[in-house]
Write a structure and sequence with these properties.
single chain, about 160 residues, mainly alpha, 3 domains, two-stranded antiparallel sheet, 8 helices, about 50% helix, elongated
Length: about 160
């Protein structure tokens, strides 16, 4: 592939530009990349995501892998492979099999094995809600100089804490 800037040499550096709703991909030769200040001598480590996605593409026969498209945002598997980003929340369902395979390759399992989120007990949530309301009432009582009522509310807050 030729350099998009000089159109003379082989493009060896891919530059992806993200601007608002569009993404452009430029292929640059080493000279043009260096002129833009892009370092070409440092080799970047390969990311498992790109390995996985290229493997999935080969398994599905190239065109079939690229044909998978989100019905909501029209993101393709190829776009996901290039950017590493899904287009919307519906992409998770569309590319579910590919994502499960990716998780299995990266983490060794496609199921979560760590700690789980435990929501706070409803009583604790109600207590914090009540404390918030009491603090707001205390603030208003102090603003309106109702100090006896403020002292009563202060005592209620201390009792809950």
């Amino acid at each position: 592939m030729l350099c998009d800037e000089c159109k003379e040499r082989e493009g060896v550096v891919s530059v992806t530009k993200m601007q608002k709703d569009s993404m452009t991909l430029e292929n640059l030769c080493e000279k043009c990349a260096a002129a833009r200040g892009i370092e070409t001598t440092v080799t970047m480590p390969k990311h498992p995501l790109s390995d996985f996605l290229s493997g999935v593409q080969q398994q599905l026969g190239g065109q079939q892998a690229d044909a998978a498209r989100c019905t909501f945002c029209s993101t393709t598997l190829r776009e996901f492979r290039n950017s590493g980003r899904l287009g919307c929340m519906h992409c998770y369902g569309t590319f579910e099999q590919s994502l499960r395979e990716l998780l299995r390759k990266i983490h060794g399992n496609s199921r979560h094995a760590g700690r789980r989120y435990e929501p706070p007990a409803p009583a604790l949530f109600e207590r914090s809600s009540t404390l918030g309301e009491l603090r707001e009432r205390l603030r208003r009582a102090v603003e309106t100089e109702q100090f006896e009522q403020a002292a009563s509310i202060r005592d209620q807050i201390k009792g809950l804490e």
